[in-house]
Amino acid sequence: MESGNAAPAVEWKFQQVLTGRTQEELTEGDLVSASEFDDTGNYLAFGNKGGRVTLFQKQNGGEFKFFTDFQSHEPEFDYLKSLEIEEKINKIKWCKSRQNSQYLLTTNDKTIKLWKVTEKKVKKVWKSPTQTSGLNFPSISVSDSTVNCTARRTYANAHAYHINSISPNSDGDTFISSDDLRINLWNLSITNQSFTVVDIKPANMEDLSEVITSAEFHPSHCNIFVYSSSKGSIKLADMRNAALCDVSAKVFEEQPPPGASKSFFSEIISSISDIKFSADGRYLISRDYLTLKVWDLAMENKPIKTISIHDHIKSKLCDLYENDCIFDKFECAPNATGEFLCTGSYNHHFYVSNLKTGQVYWGEASKKKLPPKLVTAPSMARRTTRGGSLIDVNPDAMDYGKKVLHVAWNPVDKHQVAIAASNNIFLYNGA
Asked: Could you give the CA distance from residue 18 to residue 406 in angstroms, rounded to a whole number?
């Protein structure tokens, strides 16, 4: 992830738009709430607020085609706490495929499920014409295929608070799930028992000063995972050190400059909404409300790069607090080579940063099929028009209801990124 100016610029182009099954009119339940490529890059899954999961499969020509969909979660009611549990899919994570079947984990606020997706070819037996010998030999032909989706495991009743993350381990046998105060370690084959590996719940809840916001396993070291907090810190835990990883092996946290003043919003906007490892496991990428940051695992005191995303809406923080937008959780995604990072914004905008050239592209996830434009000004408050001239983005004219919260990068195709907007997934390619 070293910066430089030798690499040629990458031009980003709209590829296609993917839409799940919807009603005649768009409803809240149709909105995409999670998305993820599998490790082969041949399947893309997204879940919506209605608890439904839709899978797309890559075709020979490179485009994705509808594969199957299924209802993963239904609305529930917790009678002990008198709380409604939404069916909304919070996260989707693919597990290692086995014997021509795909496996994926899905979760809402309380319950995690393991799904098995199998495609079966339909064989038909038909009589062949009578041969010269007078014998009739049946023939077998393969026509259409059917896709079966089966819930193989249900992992429930282990989280007192809303689940915000699930992350499969590189060992292929375990995964972690996190809520505001705890991280649990599961074995994929055991549903009635999990082990708490992080517990930050204080003896007196009045002493609570931070919550867990995201967690992820290292891509190759099965003993290492990281989790982020609402205070803007990232903690790296090593399960070889202790069964309970409350004492972190490393803490990544940027200290404010001396004399820096704090505002009412300082802690809110510093809360990390998403963290990702780079594919090689050497770097961490974090997203808070205003910025995207890259951390080197060997340097804890400050990120090696900070990319401003929301400079142009700093003046609107009071309004964004009033309408709760300031609590929106934007995801981030690095590509397979660590050269590009992607994250979202409002007005259906998204940004792709080239870490080698320092260039940042701004785009709008839209069926207009407009290509993303290069942002040449240092501030994200400006963007290029079709003619190449710079114009100011007016924060008062933005639609804060149009949010790009979920982004995913194809792990095999370093130039293919998926952008979720409303009930659609927009695929973009770089060349």
From this structure: 14
Q: How far apart are CA 361 and CA 135, in angstroms?
A: 69
Query: Global pTM?
Result: 0.89
User: Is the distance from CB of 112 to CB of 85 less than 8 angstroms?
Assistant: no
Q: What residue numbers bound the domain in which 286 lies?
A: 12-122+139-430
346 in any annotated domain: yes
φ, ψ (nearest 5 deg) of residue 8: -70, 155
Stretch 367-390: mean pLDDT? 58
Pairing of strands 407-409, 416-421: antiparallel
Q: Judge whether 32 lies within some domain.
A: yes
Q: What is the pLDDT of residues 311-346, one digit of tens each?
A: 889 999 999 999 999 999 999 999 999 999 999 999
Check which CATH number belongs to the domain holding 322 and give it: 2.130.10.10
Cβ contact 248:242 at 8 Å:
no
279-318 pLDDT, tens per residue? 999 999 999 999 999 999 999 999 999 999 998 899 999 9
Strand order in the sheet with 224-229: 212-217, 224-229, 234-238, 250-252
Q: Where are the beta strands (DSSP E) in 95-164?
A: 101-107, 112-127, 138-155
CB 420 within 8 A of CB 48: no
- How far, in Å, CA of 353 to CA of 8, rounded? 14
Structural domain tally of the chain? 1
> 291-315: b or e for each residue (b if 16 or more CB lie within 10 Å)?
bbbbbbbeeeeebebebbbbbbbee
Asked if residue 134 belongs to a domain, the reply is no
| Residue 160, domain member (yes or no) | yes
